[in-house]
Each structure stands twice: as structure tokens, then as C-alpha cells.
Amino acid sequence: MPRTAVISDIHANLHALSAVIEDVQAEQCTDIVCLGDVVGYNAYPRECLDYIRSLNCPVVKGNHDEEVLHEEHYTRMNPVARQAMEWTRAQLSDEDLTWLSRLQYQRIVRSQFTMVHSGLDQPKAWNYIFNANDATGSFQKQFSMLCFHGHTHAPKVFVWDGHRAVDYSYLLEGLDENGVVEVPLTPSVKHFINVGSVGQPRDGDPRACYAIYDSDAQTVLFKRVEYDVTGAQQAILSVGLPEYLAERLEKGM
Ligand code: ZN
Prior knowledge:
CATH class: Alpha Beta
Number of domains: 1
Strand content: 15-25%
Largest sheet: 6 strands, mixed
CATH superfamily: Metallo-dependent phosphatases
CATH architecture: 4-Layer Sandwich
Bound molecules: zinc ion
Number of helices: 8
CATH topology: Purple Acid Phosphatase, chain A, domain 2
Strand order of the largest sheet: 3-4-5-9-6-7
Order of helices and strands: EHEHHHHEEHEEEEEEEHH
Shape: globular
Helix content: 25-40%
Radius of gyration: 17 Å
Number of strands: 11
Distance between the termini: 35 Å
């Protein structure tokens, strides 16, 4: 039974990544894909890169994976982002940077689904897709029934009804006591699904978020996973990254 774990926006949070991978194993997923932003914000960029590479899974490039390569862009960032980016860059080897630079912007996996960090219409523009209107352009370039994305750090379900994009994210409000909700896919309808963030959720729930695609059942399971938030915060402070990056983890913002 093929069950693909879809993870995104790890952002160098090793505590969250380890907890999610443990959950992926407990769920007996058969494979895993990563939608980018492996680095940035948190304290373990090198370790998370090593971890992701060791999984030997399909990965697409996120904006942080790209921005860290371009020191000439750092001056345009706000002070918190700039400090985090400079620190992250200093942790990475030339080999790490080369690996990041070679990531593709989008990929199709087993002819079943597409993966992209932001949107399919302009994957290098890093547009934020918050609502159905924002999702319209991406649907025009989506040629598979299913596409997974990340980037906003908030889980979402968008569907193309043949004429326009519709936001079905209310389906995600029914999380059970274990932090799980299952979304059935509608046959022959295009779905554009944001799997949320492993390492820095921003939807008010501080638990790590990821999804499991079951290609037999045609369902996507969204899961929230508890992890050692305090440990991740302490690591941020101990390496001298901005305090704000630690604070936001416990608020899920
Ligand atoms: Zn991100």
C-alpha cells in the first residue's frame, strides 16, 4: 500500500524533523518527499540537510534554500532574516551549498503528483498562496490531479472546480484528539494541497505538521506531531540567533 509522507519547511529544526520522521516510520509510510526550505530560521541547518540527504528522497528547492546561496541579496532582508541567513550560511560547507543549488523547482513523482515549494505558474517568484484567488495561476499550470506545496507554513486544500479555484480548507478543522484529519480526494478533480510546516508552523498550532498521501485510498492524511519545542528554542538562543525565532515556535506563528 503506497503511503507517501510529504514534508515541507523544515527550517533547520532538527527536534521537529526527528519527531516527524519517527511518526512517518510509525505510520509505515513507504516513501517520503520534501518540498523545500530545509534551512533557515532554526539552529540545525547542517544536521537537517544531512538528515534529508540520508533519506535519499525527491526534494524541491525552497526560497531559503535559494536565498542562502546569494549573499548579495542579504542586504535587502529585514534585520532578523538577515542575521539568521548570515548565520545559516556560515554553518554550511561548499558541498552543502552546491547540493542546494542543484535542487529543481518542481518535480513530478511516479506520474502521480507534482511537488513545488510555492506555486507552479512562477515557481521562482516565491509567491505566497494564502487563498483561492492566489491559487488560480498555479492551477493553470497544474497538469496532474494532485500537487503538493508549502511556503506559507499553513496547511490548506484548494480544488479546481473546472472554472475557478475553491478553498476547501474547512476540511482541516476536524482534527481529532491525536491531531489527525483525513481529506478524501475527489476523482478527476485537480487538488493543490499545502502540507504545512515541519519546523515553523504559522497557523496557531505549534505542533509540527505534515501529510500522508495514500494513493490506493486516494486520501491525504494531515498530521500534527508534538515535539520538543523547548529544546529547539534553547538551541536557537544558544547559537545566538534572534530571540524572536524562539518565541514564535511556541506560538505557532
Ligand atoms: Zn518556509
